[in-house]
Every structure is written in C-alpha cells, then in structure tokens.
Design a protein that fits this description.
Radius of gyration: 18 Å
Strand content: 15-25%
CATH class of the domain at 4-130 and 213-280: Alpha Beta
Number of strands: 10
Number of helices: 10
Largest sheet: 8 strands, mixed
C-alpha cells in the first residue's frame, strides 16, 4: 500500500511524509525507528483504511534530506522539528504513534507539548537508553573518536538488496515478514553504477555522546500527562528490560502485550490496529 508521498520544508530541511487514509476523528502522526523509513507503517495502514495516518521520514532517513555537517542527530533535536512539522501540516493536535526510537521521541514530545498530543501510542519503546553517571566521561571520548573516524570512510557500494539485507541485520533487527523487510530496505537504498548504496546518513550509526541516568528518565515519565498505550511485543526489546515495571508505573500508560517481535506493527499489523483503535476510541473500518 503506497499511500501518497510529498515533500515539505521544515526548519530549512526538505522532509518526506507519506499519508494513507482520509477518515478518522483524529489524525495519527507516525514516527519510525532508527535506520527505518515510512514503509514500516504501510502494513498498519493497509489494515486501517478508514484512518488518516501520516508517516514522517526523519532527517537522514528514507527520502528526507540529511542534516548539515554542523548538526547532529541527538533525539532532543527532534522536538522543535516535530513542533514545526505540525504547524506546517496544519495540525493542531494528533495521536502520536512511535516505534522504537520514534517511540522515544514521541514520548518526550508528549511530555514537552502535551497540548498537541491527544493520545500517545508506543510500540516497543518506553524512554531512552540509560547508563550510570560514572560512565559519562568515557562516553564522550568514545563518541568523539567515532565521529572523527567516520569522516575518513567513503560511501561503500553493495551489490544489491541481498547484501544490504545481510549488512542491515548487523546494525539491528529487521521485520520478521520477508516481504516487509525487503520493501523497507528497498526504500532505504539508492542505485549507483555497479550496485546500490544506503540513503541514510552514515552519522546515524555513530554512538551517542550522552545517555540519561535512570533517575532522569523516571522523572520525565512522571511528568507525562497524555493518556496512551504501550504495545509490548512478547519477544521485543522492552519486555526483557529490568526497568519495565517501574517505568510503566511512572508513565501511567496502559499496556497491551501481543505475540511478536520488535517490529510488531509489521509482523502482526491487524492485532496492532485493533489495540490502537481501542486506545483511541475509534473504529477500525
């Protein structure tokens, strides 16, 4: 299900958004995860034809423009971008749906701008990664070392989609449905002479220079006032985290566990739509 793609300029960046459906009492703005693109929401849209779903492709992902060399991809930089995007699209309020890293950004945006988010819908995401504060100094040094090194690496050409699938699996999980994984990666590749290269900005693979402490994340979660839902895959990433009970209690979010992996919305889209529609108080059809 292709949807309608268009480009919008937001804070000086040319970003791609894809849209499916025209109905629903409240539009859903969908935010994909790290190294993914809007294609990850196509299966969900196919099972929810009566709902307007707008999927943003983050800077450096999909067909959206990369950030300039002087900028970085820290998740907090996404907050003013989302605020400006809603203005650009003429949306006063939305249901905010986020998967993985997109769910982390959706969560912190809902804390910062609760008046713009009527429902918060998360898929295998419940706040950013944390580490003990005594590791902060080493984290800075490691991040700078990798940042300096990546400038010396050229764009690496691959023979085709099969090699890209194998390489992408080294960076993170892929949808369990092969056709979805191939569609997701096909949009992430750019053809060149003799093969293909990744469209995404190589800087997206750099380690973060800063992580929160768990106490900071819990304090943020207690400040959340937007009602919402966490879709928890039985074989996902969040389910195995020791922080889950305390973070969930702090957030006040409802939680529905469904069979599946990290890409729950692509592997079990119909079950996800039923749960999401119920959380939003709307119809599936």
């Amino acid at each position: 299900m292709q949807g309608t793609a268009r480009f919008v300029e937001v804070l000086g960046l040319r970003l791609c958004v894809r849209e499916w459906g025209e109905g629903g009492t409240l539009p859903i703005l969908a935010l994909h995860g790290w190294l993914d693109n809007s294609e990850s929401f196509a299966p969900l849209a196919a099972h929810w034809p009566g709902q307007r779903i707008i999927a943003l492709e983050w800077p450096g992902h999909g067909l959206s423009e990369h950030l300039p060399a002087s900028a970085d991809y820290h998740l907090y930089n996404a907050l003013p971008l989302l605020d400006a995007l809603l203005d650009r699209l003429g949306l006063r309020q939305v249901a905010l749906l986020g998967h993985s890293l997109g769910g982390v950004v959706a969560l912190i945006f809902a804390i910062a701008r609760p008046q713009r988010v009527e429902r918060l819908l998360l898929i295998d995401a419940l706040g950013p990664r944390t580490e003990p504060p005594e590791l902060a100094g080493g984290r800075l040094a490691e991040a700078l070392r990798h940042h300096t090194a990546i400038a010396r690496h050229g764009v690496r050409r691959m023979q085709g989609l099969e090699q890209a699938l194998a390489q992408r699996a080294q960076y993170g999980l892929l949808p369990g449905v092969d056709a979805v994984a191939r569609a997701l990666l096909s949009r992430a590749l750019r053809p060149v002479e003799g093969g293909v290269v990744w469209r995404h900005d190589p800087r997206l693979t750099l380690p973060s220079p800063y992580y929160h402490t768990e106490e900071q994340v819990l304090a943020q979660l207690r400040a959340l006032t937007v009602p919402g839902l966490l879709l928890l895959p039985s074989e996902g990433l969040v389910k195995s985290r020791a922080y889950l009970p305390e973070r969930l209690a702090a957030s006040g979010l409802a939680c529905v566990e469904l069979p599946g992996g990290h890409y729950l919305h692509t592997d079990a889209p119909e079950a996800c739509v039923v749960a999401l529609a119920r959380a939003c108080g709307v119809s599936v059809t």
